[in-house]
Amino acid sequence: MFKYELIDEEATTVISFEGDLDIDATELMEEEIAPKLYDCSNIKIDFSKVQFVDSSGIGLLITLIHHLRERGIRVRIFHVSDEVRIVFEMLQLPDIMGADVLPEFEHS
Amino acid sequence: MPETKSQSFDESQSAPMHKALQREIQLARNIQMKLLNGEKPELPTGEVSGISIPARLIGGDYFDFYPLGDGRIRILIGDVMGKGIPAAMLMILTRGAFRSAAGAAQGPGQTLTMMNDAIYKDLRKLGSFVTIFCADWEPATGTFVYANAGHSMPIVVRSDVGTVTLPVLKGVMIGGLPGQIYKEKTSHIQRDDLVFLYTDGIVEAQNAQGEMFKLDRLSGILVEQSRQTAEAIQNAVVEKVNEFTKGLPQKDDITMVILKADGDQRGV
């Protein structure tokens, strides 16, 4: 089951994701998480507790990042696990989402 | 009262509506199955087989064979983001793009470039994407030219060696970025090689304990079955996945394409 925790640290909002990021996370991501983040100006996403992400989850993440950046919100993803890193790299997410969103990755 | 009237009208309509919806989903499934499971191309040497098993009534995975008329065949396997009816609609969009591009493109790289050019805007508008692996295979010579748009690399099983790795080729998924030029790599498929293309629904298939099927298990089955016909290998993989999941409904569609260069009927 996919969960999240939101912590405000001064000017930065840290959101920690936990669980499998797949199609079951759709409603939570679109109806709850995204609207909560639209009021922030600087967001760090902690991915350390996400061990699995499939194509639907990647789609949710890309859409979230896209909508946040469209609103001028700075967003970065940290602590990506090795399993998830393989998927991110295979899909060249640093190229798609922007290298500044994934500072732990090498930009190709 | 008008509200009560309106409510009773809705209730009286819900059963027929539900039935009509069920019928339309079934019709959509039939269309998809017919498009997916068309005629297998006849090859002078070698054989191909493919199957797609949707997680729900209809799915977003796609595979296709396009004979190029000169002894080569263009093969595609793709996974549309999402599941069910929305993914199925995008799968049809992808199929149209492939069929249009396949006849005009010089190779698999250009095929992906043309597909991305054709459907990038639609996919972005819909917040979706498609991962695709595309290859031109010439069974008579074994030449295997491939291009990749964010999809898993195929598994190759070589008789008496086990699994061998094709040089990895990366590429942005279709709908990821505009104006992408997809590179190609060339490899050689030997006469008794088995080439297995797949979507991640196989390796991510789960049992009741939440364990995944995983790549190692799949590779083991392919090594064990590599001397069988393409269709027998396909059936064996489906059977093993079913044994593993014990009928548990899956989150993702399962699709595979099998290429056998020799295409003979030897048993193990």
TrEMBL record, chain A:
Q: Name one Pfam family in it.
A: STAS
Domain STAS residues, every copy: 2-108
Superkingdom of origin: Bacteria
**Gene Ontology molecular function: any one:** anti-sigma factor antagonist activity
PROSITE patterns cross-referenced by the UniProt entry = STAS
Family, according to the entry, reads as follows:
Belongs to the anti-sigma-factor antagonist family.
Task: Return the NCBIfam families for the record.
Answer: ant_ant_sig (TIGR00377)
Name this polypeptide is given: Anti-sigma factor antagonist
Q: Which organism is it from?
A: Cohnella pontilimi
Q: What is the lineage of its organism?
A: Bacteria, Bacillati, Bacillota, Bacilli, Bacillales
TrEMBL record, chain B:
Kindly name one Pfam family recorded for this protein: SpoIIE
Family annotation (InterPro entries): Bact_Sigma-Reg, PPM-type-like_dom_sf, PPM-type_phosphatase-like_dom
Task: Kindly state which keywords UniProt assigns to this record, in alphabetical order.
Answer: Hydrolase
GO MF term list: phosphatase activity
Domain (PPM-type phosphatase): residue spans on this chain? 43-261
TM region positions: none
The reply on keyword Hydrolase is yes
Name of the featured protein = Serine/threonine-protein phosphatase
User: Which organism is the protein's source?
Assistant: Cohnella pontilimi
Q: What is the lineage of its organism?
A: Bacteria, Bacillati, Bacillota, Bacilli, Bacillales
